[in-house]
């Protein structure tokens, strides 16, 4: 049996991180068996290397090896792709077709992004795992397949199971052995090593001198978060290799190629990584929306106080709140009263547009407001709901524009699968 170092050289795997070495060691150990394997890890960490290692060291190495990206196949055709179909099974099925499970009989099939499989397909896959049987689409004949299944996913499977998106029994059948690859940001010593390897490869490919990072740029390279992992690092190395005429790369030049270049790995405090406030752009968006809601609630509270009590006293007691909402302390009390009255009126829903200005002014100077009026006023200034769907559409548009319409790159940036992005594009008619 080959050792870890020999496997790295054979499959051109760069790095000496202990977690990476452990993952390769597990792949070597499980290879001679026929048990199913689930490879987990973030997008771009190199999960596709593990199935190749396992297949090449197994007794099936002379059989076929087929890799299938489950997230890239439309839901309506995935059963046909995997299990085949009979002639006339559906519109466009002009002839009988073999599926991947029939074609790879005696070999290995790698199901990438297995977490994106529809539930109906998961049932079919479970049957293959349990007794090696499957049925073509449009057929009633049971067929046998001697095949080894290796799957990979960047989805948290426990969350998917809890949400009813993935079958628990299928998960345990797939993950007889689970191999987890660490994200690039946890492989600090390997990052510069990988960058130098990519720089050397591109220098040879494009017939130019290799680029070299200056000391401060190399330190920054290691501290950057690399949310796209190895795929992103390779992309940055290629861009710099092609576009920069000066082969010594300074820190400002490196930062110009890194999106959100201020996002670095949290510093280590007492042996533990400090938690970052937000892990991705969606969480930042949610925080902004919640802050907006808080401001609206404060505005509602202030307006109620102005309507119930003496305006001058309320302004003096809430000077900080007024400054935060309106941005200035300089307004005269009468001006502030008119400004708040106008604000409260602007928040009235369409159903109450018939409320006249003089009636509202009368309410502002009343000494007391009864319970019924309190209820109506609270209803009048209720904040409008925040539309998350519009924010989602805007994020998808920006990702597609930034990546020039390339769905795979846009999906990686958004942190979703290409299949999910395709469904969203159809849903919102983008």
UniProtKB/TrEMBL annotation:
It comes from the Bacteria. One of its GO terms (biological process) is regulation of DNA-templated transcription. Keywords: ATP-binding, Nucleotide-binding, Transcription, Transcription regulation. SUPFAM superfamilies: Homeodomain-like (SSF46689), P-loop containing nucleoside triphosphate hydrolases (SSF52540). Residues 13-242 form the Sigma-54 factor interaction domain. The keyword Transcription applies. One of its GO terms (molecular function) is sequence-specific DNA binding. The keyword Cell membrane does not apply. InterPro entries: AAA+_ATPase, AAA_lid_NorR, Homeodomain-like_sf, HTH_Fis, P-loop_NTPase, Sigma_54_int, Sigma_54_int_dom_ATP-bd_1, Sigma_54_int_dom_ATP-bd_2. PANTHER family: SIGMA L-DEPENDENT TRANSCRIPTIONAL REGULATOR YQIR-RELATED (PTHR32071:SF121), TRANSCRIPTIONAL REGULATORY PROTEIN (PTHR32071). This is AAA domain-containing protein.
